[in-house]
């Protein structure tokens, strides 16, 4: 029987969920609360659902002090939420850079459109820059939908270029079962957070 994942309680809404479905926070050496998206930082963790409202509730009710069993200075929920969003973006960006290093990324609207039309069996993910021209963006989204390929709109042309070590890139495509699965999970989490979803008990 597969080992059950340990559960933790959200300090905002008190729901108990598997650790991987929650956001982990730790106490930094300076005594402030910081998000730990990689679940790697040492020390006691406090958990919330992956949404802004549970972070707010935790801050308002000073649940972090209780969870860390020490007097924690009041955290600004907006600041923590912005930090979580930035960390989520950094994770997506680092997976994209890794996939690129592994030779699994192509970029540019012509190349991506050709790739979509070839319709190879390997799993794909199309990432469109938020500042892509509307025409090209809509064309590529329609083509991706036609071939059942996931697509997401995030970041900017400038940032994609920087991540790939190239000039401006309005669209990039990842072709790799492993990277696409991981990135889809990260992107779902990020989108849900931005949409204000992710709590089962709202
Ligand atoms: Zn919650």
Outline the secondary-structure elements:
Blueprint: E1 7-9, E2 16-18, E3 22-27, E4 33-35, E5 46-49, H1 52-60, H2 63-68, H3 77-101, E6 105-107, H4 109-118, E7 124-128, H5 134-146, E8 150-153, H6 157-164, E9 171-175, H7 177-195
Parallel strand pairs: 7-8
Antiparallel strand pairs: 1-2, 3-4, 3-5, 6-9, 7-9
Bound molecules: zinc ion.
Textual characterization of the structure:
The protein is built from seven helices and nine strands; from the N terminus they run E-E-E-E-E-H-H-H-E-H-E-H-E-H-E-H. With 202 residues, it is of the alpha+beta class. The protein folds into two domains: 7-75, Hypothetical Cytosolic Protein, Chain: A (2-Layer Sandwich), CATH 3.30.1230; 91-195, Ribosomal protein L30/S12 (60s Ribosomal Protein L30, Chain: A). The strands form three sheets. A four-stranded mixed β-sheet has the order 6-9-7-8, sandwiched between helices. A three-stranded antiparallel β-sheet has the order 4-3-5. Strands 1-2 form a two-stranded antiparallel sheet. Strand 3 and strand 4 (33-35) form a beta hairpin. Helix 3 packs antiparallel against helix 7. The longest helix has 25 residues, at 77-101. The radius of gyration is 19 Å and the shape is elongated. The two termini are 32 Å apart. The relative contact order is 0.15. The structure holds zinc ion. Residues 10, 12-13, 15, 48-49, 54, 199 line the site of zinc ion (ZN). Zinc ion (ZN) binds next to strand 5.
